[in-house]
Amino acid sequence: MPDHESTRRTVVIGNWKMHKTSAEGVALAAELVAGLEPGRAAVAVAPPFTALAPVADALRGSSVSLAAQDVFHEREGAFTGAVSAPMLAAAGCSIVLVGHSERRHVFGDRDEDVRRKALAVLDAGMRPVVCVGETLEQRDAGDAENVVRSQVEAVVARLSEAQLARLTVAYEPVWAIGTGRTATPEIAEAMHRVIRASLAALAGSGAAERTPILYGGSVKGDNAGAILAGANVDGLLVGGASLRADSFLTICHAAG
Ligand code: PGA
């Protein structure tokens, strides 16, 4: 049994991305609630904005938490198309992904945007999941560790102890997202160790030990267990395989 098990609870988050209408989301949430066996993994789902409130209703009274996929850092104002952290909290979210690679690469989120979003999430009393990860070009150039370290540093430097206590980091190598090409358990564990060391350097070893570090990128039922076996892998961020109850539940049960 990895020595972290007593301090860091395993976390599994399903990122539905731009999938599921409200009705489809409610149906999937109901299937998850019905099928989830009690375990030690904390489970959450991240529907698109339009499905958050109805899915919150469907999850009420269950152990499944509600997450949002993104946020804008301002509290309110003339920001057409944007959704604020207090709005997400009021819709029932307790977790918000920030800096997902699709936000960085499709929508142009920079490290500074990710930092502001994480702070907005913390200010609203929720938990940010800060997503980091290198592209294939960066890995091939030998830059993977530096890229990930600097993405972590951009958010974590200057966080207070109370803020650090609600931080989660997700390592998602861009080349593994939606490609069917999963990082090997060794690659995942090696980068998680780098992230933990960088957290320790920035925030102290206590905070580093307490921070859950999730892996994401083509996680499926048949590879979840091997990835989670890494001593520094504390959970999973699941995209494609979270869109169906059977495949997501298999992963949740492998984790718990
Ligand atoms: P995937 O997505 O599981 O479909 O690769 C993971 C993610 O982007 O969070």
Structural class computed from helices and strand pairing: alpha/beta
Strand residue content: 5-15%
Number of beta strands? 8
Largest sheet: 8 strands, parallel, barrel
CATH C-level class: Alpha Beta
**What is the subunit arrangement here?**
single chain
Tell me what the structure shows.
The protein has 256 residues and is α/β, with parallel strands linked by helices. It has a single domain (4-255), classed as TIM Barrel (Alpha-Beta Barrel), CATH 3.20.20.70. It has twelve helices and eight strands. Helix 1 (22-35) runs parallel beside helix 2. The longest helix is centred in the last third of the chain and has 19 residues, at 185-203. Bound molecules: 2-phosphoglycolic acid. Residues 15, 172, 177-178, 216-219, 237-241 line the site of 2-phosphoglycolic acid (PGA).
Quickly list its features:
binds 2-phosphoglycolic acid; disordered N terminus; eight-stranded parallel β-barrel; 12 helices; alpha/beta; single chain; TIM Barrel
Structure described in brief:
By secondary structure, the chain is α/β, with parallel strands linked by helices. The protein is 43% helix and 14% strand.
